[in-house]
Structure formats: C-alpha cells, structure tokens
Amino acid sequence: MKLQRKNRLRATALGALAVSGALVLTACGSDDNTGTDAEGGKTSAAASNIKCDGAEGQLRASGSSAQKNAMDLWVKNYMAACSGVEINYASSSSGEGIVAFNQGTVGFAGSDSALKPDEVADSKKICKTGQGINLPMVGGPVAIGFHLEGVDSLTLDASTLAKIFDTKIKKWNDPAIAKLNEGVKLPDKAIQPYHRSEDSGTTQNLGKYLNAAAPSDWKYEAEKKWPAPGGQAASGSSGVASQVKAVDGSIGYFELSYAKSQDITTVDINTGGAAPVEATSENASKAIAAAKVKGTGKDLALELDYTTKAEGAYPLVLVTYEVVCDTGNKPETLDTVKSFLGYAASADGQKVLTDAGYAPIPEAINAKVRETVAGLK
Fold it and tell me: Is 317 helix (H, G, I), strand (E, B) or coil?
C-alpha cells in the first residue's frame, strides 16, 4: 500500500513540475487559451486577470523558505504578465524576513508565524502612520519526512514525534514506534533527527503542534529557534529535506512541496481519529478550514486547531503570512506590492498552490485578504 503511495507521490511530483513549467509559459497557469501572442503562441485568459496597474520597477521581499516554491510560481507568472516589473524574493527564514521588514529593506516579508507584540511595535517605526499586519497567503502541511531503508510506510503520533525530536526515542525499533506500526519490520538503527539551524516559523509551528497534541512530552516553548538538545541542524527547509534525502535513518520536518520535489516518503499521523492521516494538500485544507481569525482591525492572523481529530484532517499545518504595513507603505513600491499580492490572493494565484504541494487559503478568509490588500496605503 505504501509503495503504491510512494509511486503516486513520485507521479504527483512530476506532475507538479510539469504544471510549473506550463505556468511559466502561460503566465498564470490557466488552461483556457483564448488567443495568440505576437509570435503565434497561445495566450491565456487568466493572464489578463493579473492587474499590473501602477506596478513598476523592482520590489524586494524576503523571509519564509516554507513558501519558496509557491513564491517562485507567483513571481514567474506575475513577471510574465507585467513587463518591466522585477520581483526579488529572498528565501531565508521567517525570522530574517521580519527583521528585514522592520529595518525597511523589503516591501513585504514572508513569515510562517504571526508577528509578536514586540515585532508589531518595531514595525511602527517603519510604517510611520500604521503598523505591520499579517495577511495569510499560503497554507499547507508540515510534512514529517523520513529515510529508512526497507521501510516504505510509517505512522507516528504526537507523543512519539515529540520524543524523537527531543532525542528521547533513539532507535527505529523502539517499542513506542513498533506499537504504531504493526507488521512493519523496523530496523535496530539509530534515529538521526534533523531540525532548522536558523529562526524558523516552520519550527515554531511544529512546536505549537507538539505543545497542543503532546503537552506531557514536549515541554519547550513554541519559538522560532530550535529548543531541544541533540539532533542535527540544517539551513532552510531545503537543507533539512536534502539531509533527510541523503541520510539513512534520518527524519525531519519541512513543507510538503519539498517532499514531493525530492521524492521523500512522509509520515502518516495518528491523531486518535478513525485512521492515520496522510500529509496532503487536501487533508491540510480540512484542518485550515476550521481556523479562526484572531487578529484585530486589518490584521488577519489565524488561530489553528492542532488537536483536531476530524476525519481526514492533517493537524500539523502552517499558514505563511505576507507581512505589510496597513498604512505607511513606501510610495515607490506600494502599487507593486498591492498588484503582486493581489495576484497571489486571487483565484488564479491560489489555484496553483495545490499542484505545488500547498493548500489554498479558505475562500472566506481569502476574501478578507483581497479586501485588505486593495486598501493598503
């Protein structure tokens, strides 16, 4: 069964790459061709839906590596439609993105966790007449990827994950893991857990999940800096994924798009529901759909339910926010920020996320995002 799933994962990854290539060629990923361009090639109806009004010059942004693959698609599609505009998104980490935003060096930042009160306070120095706000733009599962020769299927729960990442469970054939994987031949091999080396919103979201779902086994605060002793560090989601891909006996956490692109098998999570839940965009959407807006005013920070036992809902999810000023954005980049983020939040922009391993933001929330983007000053 798991081997079949791994083959499906490989096929899905290849399909996503094919879709990505098509997106670059068609500007915004629509299959509805309605005409020809100057060179006789097909143009897409969706290309005309990207509103470039007022956008010009260069827009710099940075932050979350979790959304890198989504941002790559958006940037290619947008720049193909809006000639003369250059979007440079530096994929680093949520922490570095917020620092850059509060230093005034980027037009917006990507962060996998909402701004903290002190970060909001710092943003007022840059936003002048306003403050930084959180706009949920990308959702998706935080996949637990593993590399264990001879094992194509693995189910874990929050308690075992907490103990593995806290290096309390050290061998793959530990009784706690074996109990969750009856019939699977687990080797007497050391577990090599990998975590992020830099401040990371993905790390913080993993911590929030473990705090909520396994409070007696994970005693650390949910912060962007990795809190537990032991394990090995790697830079960025891509770095963690690369190490898991290369090292037998390893396990790590990263967004599903990295598992797809590197053909890494992922853990199913036992939530206590009817059956273990696979890390998929669709299953993450079921969990994100239950999120509630906890931000006030124009801030749209979300509260996620990490303890859901709803059928088919994958609980270990994150939402990446684009951080902007509600008012006081730089005049020279404001129109470009509104135009680009308006595309990302549009139906066409959100449509490309699933094929890339992400989950679109639920429409009820996304409608508020579009309204807020349109009103940025």
Answer: strand
Burial of 249 (0-12, 13-18, 19+ CB in 10 A): middle
- DSSP states along 273-297: SSS-B---HHHHHHHHTT-EE---T
Assign a CATH topology to domain 2-138+326-374: D-Maltodextrin-Binding Protein; domain 2 (3.40.190)
CA distance 358 to 356: 6
CATH 3.40.190.10 in the chain: give the residue spans: 2-138+326-374, 141-286
The domain 141-286: what is its CATH number?
3.40.190.10
Give the mean model confidence (pLDDT) for residues 210-239. 96
Structure-block tokens of residue 103: 């230093």
**Both structure tokens of 332:** 């020279």
Q: Could you report the per-residue pLDDT of 70-91, keeping only the tens digit for each?
A: 999 999 999 999 999 999 999 9
Q: Is beta strand 33-36 parallel, antiparallel or unpaired with respect to 42-44? A: antiparallel
What is the rounded CA–CA span in Å between residue 341 and residue 353?
14
Predicted structure pTM score: 0.78
